Amino acid sequence: MGWHDVNIHAVAFRAELFEFWLDVDYIFSWVHPQGEETHFRFWVAPATLVFTNVHSLRFDLESHDGDLSLQGIERSEPSPARNAEYLAKKTEWLWLLDCNEGEITFSSVGFSQFIRRPPVLLQAQQLTLEERVGFHLPQIMLPNHALQRTAACQRSLSLLDFSRPRLYVLENPSSGEN
């Protein structure tokens, strides 16, 4: 999974659950120009990124135009999780959300990413507010229909089966200890 150029539309905190949520336009795939085309196209879907057992949250951001977008997400410094006796995952990490506008850092045991609808092919790297139907942070199910897959999007979507009505969750890679 990668988050290069992923736009962040909203953030939320669920303090009672120690969760940090981000409403993003996840880019599944970059499609290279073909033939006479001169610009990339992008397979994009609205998603909710939820980090769990979050603490020590720090924002260092400065946005001159109101945008907030990711360059990447990194984790480092594994350590025993706070409240490990109550968690399935016993290791927490220091997370860095590297943004064009600065950075967000915190400790967390990991994340889940909820894809809220099938990706669409766009000329831009983000959906319009109308295309994404506003700002949303719920963990919801996708509709019951098959996704028309193209060769450009096939590899990125191989983990997902949109033909069944269920919640599609992409989780961070396991470090093997959980």
**Any idea how many domains?**
1
Percent range for β-strand residues: 35-45%
SS-based class: mainly beta
Radius of gyration: 17 Å
What shape does the CA trace take? elongated
Q: Main beta sheet: strand number and arrangement?
A: 6 strands, antiparallel
Fraction of residues in helix: under 10%
Return the string of H and E elements. Answer: EEEEEEEEEHE
Number of helices: 1
The CA-CA distance between the termini, in Å, is 20 Å
Low-pLDDT runs of 5+ residues are 139-171, 173-178
Overall average residue pLDDT: 79
- How many beta strands in the DSSP annotation? 10
Features:
178 residues, 6-stranded antiparallel β-sheet, 4-stranded antiparallel β-sheet, 1 helix, 10 strands
Topology:
Blueprint (H helix, E strand, L loop, with lengths): L6 E8 L4 E13 L9 E12 L2 E7 L8 E11 L10 E9 L2 E7 L1 E6 L4 E3 L28 H7 L11 E3 L7
Antiparallel strand pairs: 1-2, 2-3, 3-8, 3-9, 4-7, 5-6, 6-7, 8-10
Q: Please, could you describe this protein's structure?
A:
β1 (7-14) and β2 form a beta hairpin. The chain starts with 6 loop residues before the first strand and ends in a 7-residue tail after the last strand. The relative contact order is 0.23. The protein has one helix at residues 151-157; strands at 7-14, 19-31, 41-52, 55-61, 70-80, 91-99, 102-108, 110-115, 120-122, 169-171. It has one domain. By secondary structure, it is mainly beta. Strands 1, 2, 3, 8, 9 and 10 form a six-stranded antiparallel sheet that branches.
